[in-house]
């Protein structure tokens, strides 16, 4: 019979969450590198290069892979013979571990969790509470799997109640394109099938804890119906040509995971949850011998990747750029931004809208005239940083505010990740504005281009406050030009056709 001490669980949770904030699993790094080497789309290859470089930088600097350090999900399997030396409940112990991890002074993690989700939506300040799933099992150990899941990928989760005779493959192939690029492909798809609606969702989340092993499966061949389905879906989704960051390419998913459970004869509940390019998960077992501390990997596990935007990249001075300057920017073109830009995301846009509707106007220090906005909620700085990791958030969430911003504030450009909706693209074209894309999953790399940061409005919103960033050679891609051409439409269309041609050549 094991005696598990309160501090041992707390310390193990805190250590694991700090660890996964800056160390990618080796299997993920290997899979991303394999995809990078095989990629033929230059835009997608550049994106994967930035993700891999960012991953190594985070391992070296021990800073977050992504500015969205996630909502914590825990699977706790507690042995029935375990005894506790504790004054707190297991839930309180786990949440105390989360609290300590996210407030660690040497590596502050972004607090993203809001209480009262239908009302005030107030930040809890320490990223608690975690979402915890318990299972009582045989034995005398405490087995913990945990993950820090980013909102961009979590928001793309899909659930359906299929008829028993419906094809899982057909549904996945039809559904993945509707997810857009906000989940930062290439990543993994976790698919849960069976049980009830909520059970399928738990299965999908749980199976994402497994290592990337699709290429090993290909080499040895499938040995079950689920493995056959994994390979079939993996191939079919990559043939869609969506590619890294939705720019078009050969690799959209690095792996497909499926877990099932017995279900009602009339039902086939299915949930699909994607993991993004900042996949973060860890596992540990407590047996009474003390806290479990994760073992750092060797830096030799990371490939040496060099990425240079090259002399063809257009340099843009954000302090002097005009709409006329932007007219010849081409979709897919790489820009290097220097100068000042303002930040803002969901909560800030909502407050701006309310101020404009009331006639009160924008706060002092906030002037969007002939300026760009960056959709970001950065991590707090530590030591000599100007700002912590500061990668883009999903731009699609700001679509509902875009026409207002372009019409009423004088804004001429936006920077974010993922695609824009049709009405937003129409608005961009109408106002001769542009939308630029930064790479999701490369937050620490992006932050190195930010030389100064200050909060200029809505400080009470925490990470959602409006900052003014000063940047130097910040790399971005023209995603929607002044004519309304979108690379998130043209890129996948092009590569879907090229992949189909390759398949036809092989078949003949």
| Terminal CA distance | 64 Å
- Strands of the widest sheet, in order across it, are 14-15-16-17-19
What's the overall average pLDDT, rounded? Answer: 96
Low-pLDDT sequence parts? none
Gross geometry: globular
CATH architectural designation of the largest domain: Alpha-Beta Barrel
Total separate domains? 3
Helix coverage percent? 25-40%
Q: What's the CATH C level of the largest domain?
A: Alpha Beta
Number of helices: 15
Q: How many strands appear in the DSSP assignment?
A: 19
CATH topology of the largest domain: fumarase
CATH superfamily of the largest domain: Fe-S hydro-lyase, tartrate dehydratase beta-type, catalytic domain
Main β-sheet: number of strands, strand sense, barrel status? 5 strands, mixed, barrel
Determine Rg (CA atoms, Å): 23 Å
Structural class designation: alpha/beta
Report strand %: 15-25%
How would you summarize the topology of this molecule?
Blueprint: E1 3-5, H1 6-22, H2 26-38, H3 42-61, E2 71-79, E3 83-85, H4 90-102, E4 114-115, E5 122-123, E6 131-137, E7 142-149, H5 151-154, E8 158-162, H6 168-175, E9 187-194, H7 197-207, H8 214-220, H9 225-238, E10 253-261, E11 268-275, E12 281-286, E13 314-317, H10 323-326, E14 334-343, H11 346-358, E15 372-374, H12 399-408, E16 413-416, H13 422-430, E17 434-437, H14 443-447, E18 450-457, E19 466-480, H15 487-507
